[in-house]
Amino acid sequence: MSIVMTGGGTGGHLAIIKAVKEHLKEEELIYIGSTKGQDKQWFEEDSDFAYTYFFETRGVVNQGSLGKVKSLFMMFKATIQAIKLLRKHKAKVVFSVGGFSAAATAFAARILRIPLVIHEQNAALGSLNKLLKPHATAFISSYLEESPIKAYPIKQIFFDNARIRDKVGTIIFLGGSQGAKAINTLALELAPQLKERGINIIHQAGQNNIDEVQKVYDELGIEADVFGFTTKLADYMKEADLAIARSGASTLWELSATALPALYIPYPHAASDHQFYNAQFLVEKNLAWIMREDEIETGKVLALLDEDLSEKSRGLMEIVEKNGSEKIAALLTQI
Ligand SMILES: CC(=O)N[C@H]1[C@@H](OP(=O)(O)OP(=O)(O)OC[C@H]2O[C@@H](n3ccc(=O)[nH]c3=O)[C@H](O)[C@@H]2O)O[C@H](CO)[C@@H](O)[C@@H]1O
């Protein structure tokens, strides 16, 4: 009997599988993804999986009519392959993190009546997850009251680094794994005022923008800790008292676990505007601020620097649950 994990395409989805599989070392694990996207890069060589399979599939949503028909045909073919694999490996449960790369295996699970557990990362459901939610044995979402597990799978270090903030001594700008032009522009606009107030700047600018951003800081004569991408983000978050960030799911839950209050500027082109709804989940609880990219007002951002951050920081500490990956792994073995 094996546990089959499926889905991916981007890091946001794949990171969930990576975190959960760490707690399933005793099980026979199978990964099924797509040849398109980052699935192969992440898991093709990963020895935690007894077998890995990558189907010729691609997204359906962002295609013209002919492209949609072709994508659906590829998915149909892959579903037949998935049915064979689930039978061959005697799958006892299928864990899907969504994305087009999960579709064939998740459908196959339903056809074979194998329990299907879905993890949704965002507050606005992905198309596949929306379609399969009513048929899932368990649907896990940190934003839904009825979810069997509320904890988002992030590393323990973010919780270990939590501390209550009161005033802004250090600010961190986070553009997400790729960096964000709008956040870079805002940071550089604010920089002289931040310097005047003696506030330290940490700025994750994205690998492609690092040189031009550093150049502007140099021209302004402002010292800032600028980098493209770092593997030590937890340490930087620990240092900061306020974040200005994109609201990708992992970033949002990592900041929240660190009890670091944030102004979120959602990526405007995210599917179903999910970054907006991710941030809105915290804003409704009065635990974060939000500003649409085309509604950024420097004056309003500067006003946040005078806020007492302790209430939000404490509130974040109270709502964020720990051990998401362990809890999901336990659920998969108990089904
Ligand atoms: C553009 C887009 O559509 N992104 C989506 C993608 O997120 P994507 O993976 O791009 O973004 P997330 O915020 O979820 O994760 C970024 C990850 O990169 C790490 N990091 C970032 C910068 C750095 O210098 N070092 C570093 O380690 C962060 O700690 C975090 O763990 O999937 C997520 C989950 O479905 C969605 O919520 C996001 O909206």
User: What is the CATH third-level topology name of the largest domain?
Assistant: Rossmann fold
Which CATH architecture of the largest domain? 3-Layer(aba) Sandwich
Uncertain regions spanning at least 5 consecutive residues: none
At the first level of CATH, the class of the largest domain is: Alpha Beta
Write out the distinct hetero groups bound to the structure: uridine-diphosphate-N-acetylglucosamine
Radius of gyration over C-alpha positions, nearest whole angstrom:
21 Å
- Please indicate the percent range of residues in DSSP E strands (runs of 2 or more): 15-25%
User: How many strands appear in the DSSP assignment?
Assistant: 12
Largest sheet: 6 strands, parallel
Mean pLDDT: 96
Looking at CATH, the homologous superfamily of the largest domain is Glycogen Phosphorylase B
Helix/strand order, N-terminal first: EHEHEHEHEHEHEHEHEHEHEHEHHH
Strand order of the largest sheet: 3-2-1-4-5-6
What is the percent of helical residues? 40-55%
Total domain modules: 2
Name the structural class: alpha/beta
Looking at the structure, what is the overall shape? elongated
End-to-end distance: 12 Å
The number of helical segments is 14
EC number: 2.4.1.227
Binding site for UDP-N-acetyl-alpha-D-glucosamine: 10-12, 122, 177, 275
Protein name: UDP-N-acetylglucosamine--N-acetylmuramyl-(pentapeptide) pyrophosphoryl-undecaprenol N-acetylglucosamine transferase
GO molecular function: glycosyltransferase activity
